[in-house]
Amino acid sequence: MKKIKISTTINSKKYYLDINPNVTLLDLLRDELGLTGTKRGCEIGECGACTVLINGEAVNSCLVLAPQIDGKELLTVEGLMAEGKLHPLQQSFMDHDAVQCGFCTPGMLMSSKALLDENPNPAEEEIRTAISGNLCRCTGYVQIVEAIGKVNK
Amino acid sequence: MKPFEYISTKSINEATQVLSEYKQDARVLAGGTDVLIELRRPHAKIPKAILDISYIESLNGISESDGLIILKPLSTHTQILKSDLVRKYAQLLGIAASQIGAPQIRNRGTVGGNVMNAATCADTVPPLIALDAEITLRSNGGSRTMKLVDFFIKPYKTKAESDDVLIEITFPKLPSNAQSAFIKLGRRNALSISRLSVAAILMQDKKGLISEARIVPGAALPTWMRVKEAEEMLIGEKPSLKLFTAAGQKVSEVMISYTGRRWSTEYKEPVIGVLVRRALEGCVKD
Ligand SMILES: Cc1cc2nc3c(=O)[nH]c(=O)nc-3n(C[C@H](O)[C@H](O)[C@H](O)COP(=O)(O)OP(=O)(O)OC[C@H]3O[C@@H](n4cnc5c(N)ncnc54)[C@H](O)[C@@H]3O)c2cc1C
Ligand code: FES
Ligand code: FES
User: Fold this and answer.
1) What are the chain B neighbours of A125 within 8 Å (beta carbons)?
2) Which of A77, A93, B24, B91 can bridge A98 by disulfide, Cβ–Cβ 3.0-4.6 Å?
3) Beta strands A4-10 and B49-52: pairing type?
4) How distant is the Cα of A139 from the closest Cα of chain B, in angstroms?
5) Is B54 on the interface with A (CB under 8 A)?
6) What ipTM was estimated for this complex?
7) Mind listing the pLDDT tens digit for each residue in A97-117?
């Protein structure tokens, strides 16, 4: 199988990669690049644990073929912190007890980051829509919705 | 995933060239929300090559020309639901797009993939058929255009050949006296792959009488079609609950005449009737 050359930006860092085409973006991030903050859940697009941003849009990395990130700009949960400080969303999740086991958290953060970038003061309904593709088996969502709603308040 | 060759192209001609060489051995990849799941199934048939068309810019975008809306196949559900043209001239399509999957799926999934995959539950198909959409397929041999309603043979089976690329979907803008609705019932709210759905368009004349009606159920009939028997009942009439209820009953009858009575009929029969009624009511709200 022929390897594919791609160039991509992940968390503001430029990568030039030679990759096997038959892997998903999720595999590439976790197994090749060591970016294991992005979680592997259902791998069929249902749970959202693998959510990352491609050109600012939330997508399930388990449903993206790795070569499809050529020329794109990605953000994963590892890219949220800046200058040693937590992103306001991360801080808000902690302040509002929106994390229990934490497995859904990276995906939740990425979906809500995409939302807040587009709409800094979303209504509760808009928050719920934005995270409708992210399952949480622990919190019951209330704290998560609250945490997202309070970030810019 | 088992190994395959990955080919990406920025040109339609190159894409059809590759497909004419590989025929059944190549698989087109757009957003991948259907293809990736299929490739990872335990006994999946892995193609020799995956042809990624997602970088072909001329296959993306929503525009208007001469009273037509031109919907390029790589337009994502998110692009559709945010489009002013769709909101203005094809409201029901925007409603359907906004209810597909979750944001992650809508950001990635394309209308072309939805149509070409031809799943029973493809949510953009009933609205597009109600809008009287035409599609254009291109292969090395040239282009052909057909009505979308004639494109489907049965769920997951279309008239597309293995070397066809869907390059365009077009439909006439709805006039200002038209109102439209799309309703679906899923098993679960957010990610539900829809079961029953109904797309409806009504036009009223100056006296408020119905001058045109289009009703297209999803996942109810052996393939997608307008239910003319129910549409005809509405023409020349004034909208009313009674009329819409009767039209809903007619759609149930037509459904049963095609599918016969089976285990799911007890549920589907009343439900499709109610969905039709609600969709029609959605078309007369001011
Ligand atoms: C969790 C989840 C939820 C979903 N929910 C819904 C839902 O609510 N409603 C719904 O309708 N769908 C739903 N889907 C299905 C899917 O997201 C849609 O059908 C989507 O529109 C497919 O588009 P795509 O670009 O991802 O297709 P792809 O997976 O890239 O392609 C799908 C098929 O179309 C072919 N193809 C794509 N583009 C072209 C082209 N231009 N020319 C020729 N062939 C082409 C491919 O070869 C393939 O056979 C869901 C999927 C998932 C994983
Ligand atoms: S792992 Fe991708 S959606 Fe569940
Ligand atoms: S905190 Fe455990 S799944 Fe959400």
Assistant:
1) none
2) A93
3) unpaired
4) 18
5) yes
6) 0.97
7) 999 999 999 999 999 999 999
